[in-house]
Amino acid sequence: MERAANLPAAIDAAAEALIGVLDSAVSRHQLAVSPTQLRVLSLLSGRPETNVNRLAELLDVVPSSASRLCDRLEAIGLLRRVADPRDRREVRLVPTAAADALLRDVRERRHAALRAVLDRMPGRVQQELLHALVSFGRAASDGAEAQPASPARTA
């Protein structure tokens, strides 16, 4: 067993390998959107109350950049801007059915690529990986909730 001091390096290397597998599952196929646009659709699909300002925060960009991204997605039929029923001055960003289908296709391709890698691993190791990833996810979530706000964010 490797020393615990090597664990962050091993996780970093595994994350790079994972990103490579996920990216190659999609890059072999011609998508109508860029990786950034795909990320926007993915973010919006899980956040139905999102407006341009909130999207800009999620992406860590200025609102005008987020708005231009939305303009391009709207132009190709993957995004709609709709008035918030509670406050008509607010505009929500809603992925279209075509965006949902695109995200579903990307998710299926990525899962198939991951299954191909997992199939090369013994079942016992797959189970250990599952438990480790669940624990890691919990620890990361708990740690994020326990973190005090940074001084720049509290001002």
From TrEMBL:
InterPro entries recorded: HTH_MarR-typ, MarR/SlyA-like, Tscrpt_reg_MarR-type_CS, WH-like_DNA-bd_sf, WH_DNA-bd_sf
**Keywords from the named record:** DNA-binding, Transcription, Transcription regulation
Q: What is this protein called?
A: MarR family transcriptional regulator
Q: Does the keyword Amino-acid biosynthesis apply?
A: no
Q: Which GO terms describe its biological process?
A: response to stress
Q: Which GO terms describe its molecular function?
A: DNA binding; DNA-binding transcription factor activity
> What species was this sequence derived from?
Micromonospora endolithica
Report the PANTHER family cross-referenced here.
HTH-TYPE TRANSCRIPTIONAL REPRESSOR YETL, TRANSCRIPTIONAL REGULATOR, MARR FAMILY
